[in-house]
Amino acid sequence: MNIRQAKLLAAIIDQFIDTAIPVGSKKLLASADFPVSSATIRSEMALLEDEGFLGQPHTSAGRIPTVKGYRVYVREFMKPTRHEDQVRTRFNELKEQYLAHKDRERVYEAVGLLAGMTPNVAFATVPHRDRLYYLGLSNVLRQPEFQDDARLLSGVVEVLEHRLSELLDDIQLTDEVQYFIGESNLCPQFESCSMMITSYKIRDGRGAVGILGPTRMDYGYNTVALDMVAALLRDAYTS
Question: What's the maximum distance between 2 C-alpha atoms anywhere in the chain?
Answer without folding.
Answer: 96
